Amino acid sequence: MNSKGATEVKVGIAVGAALLLFIVTVVLLGGNKSMFSSTYILKVPFDHVDGLNPGSLVRVNGYQVGSVHDIQFSAEDQKIIVYVKILKKFQSRITKDSEASLRTQGALGDKYVAIETLTFNGEPLKDGDSVRVEESPDIFTTISQRSGDLGKIFDILKDFREFSKTLNKDGRSDHIMENLTSASKHMDQAMVQFELAIKDLRGDDQKNLKKISNHIESILEKIDNGNGTLGELINDPTIHDKIKEILGGSKRNDYMKSLIQKTIQEGKK
Predict the structure, then answer these.
(1) Would the pLDDT of 31 be above 50?
(2) Are the beta carbons of 99 and 69 closer than 8 angstroms?
(3) Residue range 66-88, pLDDT digits in tens
(4) Are 85 and 43 in contact (CB under 8 A)?
(5) CA-based Rg of the chain, rounded to a whole angstrom?
(6) CB 3.0 to 4.6 Å from 44: which of 31, 82, 185, 253, for a disulfide?
């Protein structure tokens, strides 16, 4: 190899080394130091991933601790298994009582895996363990899942707008308000008349009602004490027995019944 060829090789090696050093510097300055750090894998079984992709962030109580490594369908059920790569120095922060959920960040709606840990003194999850999934999704996920229902709401609003336009056409709304106002006035007048009638009942008529009530009370008291014919009839059992003897089961019973019926019929004539 001549000197010119050797020089070209040396220049190529120098350029390659400089380029590799530049890439490493950019990665380190960008904060992606996990490629040189020890990591472990956790599994998160979701029903829907809603735009989550490999490389998406993973945060524990809002702090970035790793990224999504892979996403696969489960062979056992309908779940979608999200494999997250976590820096091992945060392993003690993700315990068995932790819960994972999908969250949205930024104006573009980027998805990330959020892990919430209630206690930090619990048993940490190990490599290959599954993180429990929180049932309730975030508000943006709910809206995306309910897009059909939102369309129905917009249809209702559109129909209401058309109804309002029809109602306001040719001054119909003003006419309706006038009728309502007139009906309200008539109702007020009726209520006034009703109140006056109640006041009249509470005036002189109330005294008469009180007198009638006192008389009825006096009559019932006399009957209960056995005074008068009706009182004796109700309170004296011997009278009941005598009537029973007269209207008993003998042949005289039929005679007395026919006699009473005949007397009643003649009285009606």
Answers:
(1) no
(2) no
(3) 999 999 999 888 899 999 999 99
(4) no
(5) 48
(6) 82
SS (H, E, C) the chain: CCHHHHHHHHHHHHHHHHHHHHHHHHHHHCCCCHHHCCEEEEEEEECCCCCCCCCCEEEECCEEEEEEEEEEECCCCCCEEEEEEEEHHHHHHCECCCEEEEEEECCCCEEEEEEECCCCCCCECCCCCECEECCCCCHHHHHHHCHHHHHHHHHHHHHHHHHHHHHHHHHHHHHHHHHHHHHHHHHHHHHHHHHHHHHHHCCHHHHHHHHHHHHHHHHHHHHHHCCHHHHHHHHCHHHHHHHHHHCCCCHHHHHHHHHHHHHHHHHHC
Q: Mean of the per-residue pLDDT values for the chain?
A: 75
The single residue listed with the structure tokens 């008291």 is 221
In this prediction, residues 157-168 reach a mean pLDDT of 73
Cβ–Cβ under 8 Å, residues 57 and 113 = yes
